[in-house]
Amino acid sequence: MPICHRGVRVRLRAPRPTDEPRLGADLASKLEHRRWELDLTQRQAAAAMGVNYWTFRTWESGRDPLPWAYPAIIKFLGYEPWDEPMSLGEQLKAERLRRGLTIKAAGHAAGADEGTFMRWERDEWNPQQPSRPGVVQFLALTEPLWSPLPRIRRRWSQDGN
What is the distance between the alpha carbons of residues 44 and 36, in angstroms, rounded to a whole number? Predict the structure, then answer.
């Protein structure tokens, strides 16, 4: 927007920073670094991802995106912005975000309810035998990620404790 000073219109422009932004572990720095590599403004990067400028700007300032946005983010970055999944829960979360699904939708796709899927994703619960085919199908695995768990029988004492 032009600025008027004593009848003279002046348009101020800041030069583009020449220093490459540091690539940190958080999504915001990854987005900023990729935008810098492609020599794009925030508006151009938002348009390339198919999102609103303000949405992209909030992501770059540190706010986490909603699940629906992750497929576009992965495409823009050229890689998945999280570490290699090590546990079943991390694998479920990574697949859910790859697909851009909410926990409720992912649970439905895996044949479970929202609360159960959320506990699987947090590694609070392991899928029980009846649920395992749905999890394998959701992850498109040929072999499950979990090992067979030994059956534990609790012995009851004489007094019932």
Answer: 11
Q: Which residue has the tokens 């946005």?
A: 69
Count the neighbouring beta carbons within 10 Å of the beta carbon of residue 134: 17
Output the pTM of the full model.
Answer: 0.75
Q: In the chain, how many domains are there?
A: 2
DSSP letter at 52 equals -
Residues 96 and 131 in one domain: yes
- Give the pLDDT confidence of 67-89 residue by residue, as tens digits: 999 999 999 999 999 999 999 99
The Cα–Cα gap between 34 and 138 comes to 30
Phi/psi at 4 (nearest 5 deg)? -100, 130
20-34, 38-52, 72-86: which has the minimum mean pLDDT?
20-34
Q: Which residues pair with 8 in a beta bridge?
A: 5
Degrees to nearest 5, angle at CA 87 with 82 and 92: 65
For residue 81, is it within any domain? no
